[in-house]
Amino acid sequence: MEGVTVSKYGLAFVAESLRKYLGESWLLLAVCLLGMIVSAVLVSFGDGKSKSLTSPGLKDVTCMNWTVLIFLSLTLYNPVLVKSLIPGLGMTTVYYRSFWAFPIVLAAAYYLAYLAGGFQKRWLSAMILAGIVACAVIFMPLNPGIRYHLQLPTNVYKVNGAIPVLADAIHEDFEQTDQYQEKMEKAANADPETRKGLRKIMVQTLPKCVFPYDMEFQVRQYDASIALTCKRDMRLYYEGNRSTGVTYSGTSGAYIRRKRILDGMYGRDPSVSVSSFRKAMEKTKTNYLVVENDQDSQDFLTAAGCSLIGDIAGYHIYSFGLTKSGEKLLPASETAAN
User: Fold this and answer.
1) Do residues 257 and 285 lie in contact, with contact meaning Cβ atoms separated by under 8 Å?
2) 199 close to 213: Cβ distance less than 8 angstroms
3) What are the residues facing 318 on neighbouring strands?
4) How far apart are CA 143 and CA 241, in angstroms?
5) Neighbours of 8 (CB within 10 A)
6) Per-residue pLDDT tens for 174-199?
7) What does the CA dihedral 289, 292, 296, 298 come to, rounded to 10 degrees?
8) What's the sign of the alpha-carbon dihedral 88, 230, 247, 72?
9) Residue 25 pLDDT
10) In the prediction, which pLDDT does 278 show?
């Protein structure tokens, strides 16, 4: 979550992450906690003979919710523990997802449904249910279309139109290579019951690529069958974005290799040699580079052994280290000479 880091908020990190996670839907948490408190009181001080306390499982659900909340408060939501644990696990920017562990939405829905069905008179239950629905529509951002003249929500998140075309071209080329056929054979013989086998099937048969910065994060969501050389935080850091709180030192081999690739693609660092670029590509097992037509270092990339396989929608697609039946991969010395 951009801008919310342990180093910035310290012990308030958990509370700030929860606030960002809930956004305008904070009322859900209020309903959930209120329902848990009221139900706990009813269960604790009731005689247990009332039908409203025994059906449908009010005591069991309330006990479960309180048990989960207490456990999470001592562990995953403990600000003292989180302050030292989360940075070590590299979860600073994705910590807000941990709030999925507590069923806020399900608990709130359960208690509201229980309230609406807790009356013997049906007309009264119907009125309570109508009131709950009205409050949800008015006060919670569940469907802005209902609140704003029944307008249908628009697709505000639009994928760059070039991405589907580029992705299809990469897949088409990759599936014709000898490396893809070899990986598919290995994947066919892999054991799907083991972690290593699943990795061969799900990861090793995917083309590994580098895309332009403004496209890469959309590619992650558009096509899960494309593996990306750069991790999210690493690419943000390279582009100068420090909001994640994650830093990479000059001794980080993984970062240095990826920086070398990006510097070579765009000619940003003249000290990057052809041989060091090739080593970085080989070490990261990168298969394809997608570069803007007017920004790539074509002479450098060609000398480094990259092959231009397509000029599509204003982007050059280069392949690296891939061969097709009948072709031979030139060694580094011959490639540079050519």
Assistant:
1) no
2) no
3) 289, 308
4) 33
5) 13
6) 999 998 888 888 777 777 677 666 66
7) 70
8) negative
9) 77
10) 95
- Taken in order 43, 47, 49, 52, is the CA torsion positive or negative? negative
What's the CA gap between 88 and 323, in Å, rounded?
41
Q: So what's the pLDDT on residue 105? A: 85
End-to-end CA distance of the chain: 47
Helix (H, G, I), strand (E, B) or coil at 99: helix
Give the Cα separation of 333 and 338 in Å (integer): 9
Rounded to two decimals, what is the model's pTM?
Answer: 0.60
Per the listing, tokens 């690739």 go with: 261
The strand pairing partners of 177, in sequence order, are: 324
Name the residue with tokens 């760059």: 160
H or E segment to which residue 311 belongs:
strand 306-312
pLDDT of residue 316: 94
CA–CA separation, 184 and 45 (whole Å):
64
Q: Which burial class, exposed, middle or buried, applies to 86 when counting CB atoms under 10 A from its CB (0-12, 13-18, 19+)?
A: buried
Got the DSSP string for 21-43? HHGGGHHHHHHHHHHHHHHHHHH
Q: Cα–Cα distance between 282 and 296 in angstroms, integer?
A: 20
Low-confidence ranges of the chain (pLDDT < 50): 143-149, 329-338
- Is the separation of the CB atoms in 302 and 336 below 8 Å? no
Task: List Cβ neighbours of 99 (8 Å cut-off, separation of 6 or more).
Answer: 17, 18, 21
Question: How far is 86 from 78, CA to CA, in rounded Å?
Answer: 11
Which spans in 23-161 are helix H?
A: 26-45, 51-54, 58-74, 79-89, 104-116, 122-139, 144-147
pLDDT for the residue numbered 337: 42
The label of the residue with tokens 């342990």 reads 6
Residue at 19: amino acid letter: R
Nearest Cα to Cα of residue 236 among 246, 226, 223 = 246
φ and ψ at 21, to 5 degrees?
A: -65, -45
Contacts of 321 (CB under 8 A, 6+ apart): 179, 281, 282, 287, 305, 329
Tokens standing for residue 198 = 């699943």
Query: Which residues sit opposite 210 in a β-bridge?
Result: 289
* pLDDT at site 132: 66
